[in-house]
Amino acid sequence: TPDPVSALLAQPPADPNVALLRRLRDALEAL
């Protein structure tokens, strides 16, 4: 099942926080 973060990021970036979440998730995946 897709995690909530993935579902959130699949939505259009209507919220400026989406960009931040994307950056955060990229950083976590890079670990």
Automatic annotation (TrEMBL):
Protein name, as recorded: Transcriptional regulator
Highest taxon listed in the record's lineage: Bacteria
